[in-house]
Amino acid sequence: ISDQKPLGCWSVKHGQILTCPVVCNFETHEYIAVHDDKVLRIWKNEDINLDKAFKATLSADVYRIHSLPNGGPVVLFKGGGVRTLDVLLEAPQQEIENVISDEVIRWSGAFMEGQQPVLIFTTEKDGDFFVYVQKPKLSSLHKYKLEQQESSKPLCFTAHTTNQTVTLLCLYSNDSVYQVLIPLQQYTEEEEEEKEEEILSRSLLLNLSVSGSVLKGTSLVVLDKDHVAVLGSLAAPGKEPRECLTIWNTKFQTLQTSKELPLGTTGQLWCYEEKFFLTHGKVLTVIMYKCETSSLAAAVGKLKDSQTPDVSSFVNWNTLEDEELVVSFQSQESVALKSESRMNLRSRRSSAAKVQPENVSVGQLLLNLKDASTYVLENELRQLMAKAPTPDLQATIGCVVTALTDRCKTNPKYYPKNFLLQIVETRDLSYSLCPDLMAVALERKDVQLLQICLQRFPDIPEEITYACLEAFLSISEAHLQSEDVNLDSVICYIDVEFDNKEVKTEVVENGFNAEMDQDMCDTKIPKKPQSRSDGESCPVGPQKAALLNAVLHSAYTETFLLPHLKNLPAQQAILFLRYLYYLYVKCSEKVNTTLPGIRSPTINQIMDWMCLLLDAHFTVIVMLPEAKELLASLHKFVRAQVRFYSELNKIEGSLQELQRLNHLRDSQTYSIEVLEII
């Protein structure tokens, strides 16, 4: 989410439907899915085709799979039966009992109580609601009935366990949250029969109303023992309902904080590892929060920072405000919320800002500098970076870069190249922290900044990587000679004369002999003295080679780079392939297949990009006459390499025996031995 990069995508066949949420098995690092109610699929991240993944057809319809960090996956069937995944896989067609009759499951959750997984689910039948608690490893099942209320009914549920007790929270249609306590102790068969129709009493936990406004909740999650989050529509008298995310203190019945969601939501709210996940408009919003110890002073907003400075809060909802750079709220609540931009989550993970009331926030300062002169803007930004506190330094620098790029977009004549270079070279940044920086650099054709970003940013999207590649290939060599490009990655293996022409070097390729392999390729290519594609001369200048090396070092996911790579013009694709072939030959000159220099491409990077390029443009390259000689040379060289390594494999046993003899020999004794390899 932080890098805005999809890492994998799997799909079922046409006509098949995924019928419950996919989960991850924390123990085996596998994904588990169910399609068409009964078909179980299990696969790993490196698996590409879901149709070839493990498949098991079950005997009953699955309602949901719950994955527990230390307890493994637990499968809940629509009939109320529960199995751990291990037991289910031993006999996928085993009969699954029907625990419920004419009831419909409305919600389910799973927890670990000690070393035992506990699964709880609620059902509905004719307006009555029932609660089932199961311990699948102990074959324990308890059924309860929820206390009825004539004027309202449960809308959603959530639960947590403490001290052998399940605390079930129910959001009702009368805009209230009720609490139900369910013990987890074991009963004898006689006690179980007596408690079969036990009715669970409930107690009012929270009224969702404040200052005459009522929250019509749709989703409820527990944050800790004293705080809950509710997503819903806030209805005030005489006003249109507004969707809001709210945080409530259940101990003191107070609304801690809230935020309006003007773009609307789906009504769903998830909470995982102190982060909220919700859809706002068309984007997934991630909001980080932190719950402090609840106190009455904090709940009513009377907590003084001088008394307990560690509880002061910084609230930043900038994900939800597209018009503003940063919107910060000074608050003294005991719940500290920090909404992270979907582009900035990872880079700000360590931020925990403590804003003093007398200080101007970073967001407000940047807004004040929006119309300032260039000199004032850059001077203030330099001071801001110099005095930013250590925990917030990275987030502050991200705001600084954003302010600079925003001005570049509004003022075409403004481009602080040296300032941006200084920031990128001296600060630990990432693409997700300043997503507009490389786009602006591409627009201004600042190849020096792009090269540094490619070398330093670990999270560049494939679309931007491709845009850099296309830009580097399209820029003329004459223009690049005037650019200050770092040549550390090429200077050790490209010999340059004063006229920037490469000096031909002797190529001694591993296992390659031109005379021996003349007949290896059936394609007869006429010799052209002016056109060389045999890998001995670099097809691009040193500046362009250094820029292309930066692209080769950039991380990518093949699935998502390939569609962009197909858009590369044919002539540029051939030029890039010639350069990759040149690097391949250069690597083969060395025994360790490693190019000299700093940040030089590795043999694996070269081969991966060569395969990617051929996959994206194979048909076009085969049809182009100017590419035939290149393909023939590449084919001949690869076959020679394969033959050479094949010969090495034949003597591998003899070499291993020689190594063993060397270990047995006394190293202090001088001797000359002749070993004949037959």
Automatic annotation (TrEMBL):
Record's signal peptide: none
TM annotation in the entry: none
Protein known as: NOL11 protein
PANTHER family noted in UniProt: NUCLEOLAR PROTEIN 11 (PTHR15633:SF2)
Keyword Transcription regulation among record annotations: yes
Gene that encodes it: Nol11
GO MF annotation, one: RNA binding
Annotated ranges, domain Nucleolar protein 11 C-terminal: 364-676
Subcellular locations according to the entry: Nucleus, Nucleolus
